[in-house]
């Protein structure tokens, strides 16, 4: 018996009825031969980890654009925290951890430099708008491997596409697998809490600033809040399944508390006055780099010039800009616009 068969047999024995079994995958856009050891979801996870876009996450900002500290989150460390939280929830429920891990590791590959400020800029400039979850799919299907894409399974792509938003109330935005739904909640659990942690470290937020009623429900410390939310997600989802409802969710009170905590962070930190000046600087840089390449298509890498020919200038330049790390974007801005010493 092949090792892959043993792994898939173990999935049938250990996972709950509503879990996504790798042997039942809807497959890939391009059919591939099965491997002896790895299941399709294991292959997808490994392809994402070894991709260039995954490695670039280490230099993409989560919230704070430029820091001198080593302990502030980046888009990469956020991704790893989402993966850890979602695998814990998935294991507690009895779901496919390989599928969960693949979705979690790939969910933010389409994020732009300079946190959500970059997404706002490209959303203004690209006809039809720009969303990082949709860009993640473009990265995985059309941009990785010099335009060949990674040819991932439908379940992984669906979970990545539908990780945005705050609830599963709309079936249109709900992942087709419970594993994908787990990642959606884990993303919010991770970023709301680790952004609080980073904000306190930066001296921009104090624990006493957080509404007391939310602290009383979710917990005072970072670990307490994560534990409350993870436990609630596991037990509430198991309760849903016992009732015949195949849906991942938080309980009403805990879900409301997390939503209010997220709202507080948007008002105080994400869109607050504290970081307004740095947000505007980041947008200025991106606007000008975008404008430059709209006028100098010939200077972009070959893959993006091909996209310009097939899908237009705005799409090609957007794909190029969206893939940049914060540091690379700043290097290009300085190269393009900052005067150099030519006489010594």
Automatic annotation (TrEMBL):
DNA-binding among keywords: no
Domain called HD: residue spans: 75-192
Q: Which UniProt keywords apply?
A: Hydrolase
Q: Superkingdom of the source? A: Bacteria
State one Pfam family annotation: HD
| HAMAP family xref list | dGTPase_type2
Q: Which family does it belong to?
A: Belongs to the dGTPase family. Type 2 subfamily.
The name this protein goes by in its record:
Deoxyguanosinetriphosphate triphosphohydrolase-like protein
Species of provenance: Clostridium simiarum
Organism ancestry: Bacteria, Bacillati, Bacillota, Clostridia, Eubacteriales
């Amino acid at each position: 018996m092949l090792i892959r068969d043993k792994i898939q047999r173990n999935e049938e024995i250990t996972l709950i009825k509503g879990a996504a079994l790798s042997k039942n995958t809807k497959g890939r856009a391009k059919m591939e031969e099965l491997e002896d050891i790895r299941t399709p979801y294991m292959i997808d996870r490994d392809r994402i980890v070894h991709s260039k876009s995954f490695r670039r996450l280490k230099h993409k900002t989560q919230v704070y654009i430029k820091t001198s500290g080593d302990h502030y989150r980046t888009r990469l460390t956020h991704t790893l925290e989402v993966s850890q939280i979602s695998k814990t929830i998935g294991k507690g429920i009895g779901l496919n951890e390989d599928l969960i891990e693949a979705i979690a590791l790939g969910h933010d590959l389409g994020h732009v430099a300079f946190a959500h400020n970059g997404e706002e800029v490209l959303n203004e400039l690209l006809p039809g708008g720009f969303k990082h979850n949709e860009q993640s799919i473009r990265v995985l299907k059309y941009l990785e491997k010099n335009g060949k894409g990674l040819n991932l399974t439908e379940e992984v792509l669906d979970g990545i596409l539908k990780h945005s938003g705050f609830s599963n109330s709309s079936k249109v935005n709900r992942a087709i697998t419970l594993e994908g739904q787990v990642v959606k909640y884990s993303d919010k659990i991770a970023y709301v809490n680790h952004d609080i942690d980073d904000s306190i470290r930066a001296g921009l937020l104090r624990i006493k600033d957080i509404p007391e009623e939310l602290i009383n429900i979710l917990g005072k410390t970072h670990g307490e809040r994560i534990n409350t939310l993870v436990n609630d997600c596991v037990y509430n989802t198991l309760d849903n399944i016992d009732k015949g409802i195949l849906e991942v969710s938080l309980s009403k009170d805990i879900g409301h508390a997390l939503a209010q905590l997220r709202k507080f962070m948007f008002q105080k930190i994400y869109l607050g006055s504290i970081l307004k000046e740095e947000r505007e600087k980041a947008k200025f840089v991106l606007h000008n780099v975008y404008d430059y390449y709209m006028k100098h298509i010939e200077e972009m890498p070959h893959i993006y010039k091909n996209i310009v020919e097939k899908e237009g200038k705005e799409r090609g330049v957007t794909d190029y800009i969206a893939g940049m790390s914060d540091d690379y974007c700043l290097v290009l801005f300085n190269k393009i616009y900052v005067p150099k010493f030519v006489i010594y």
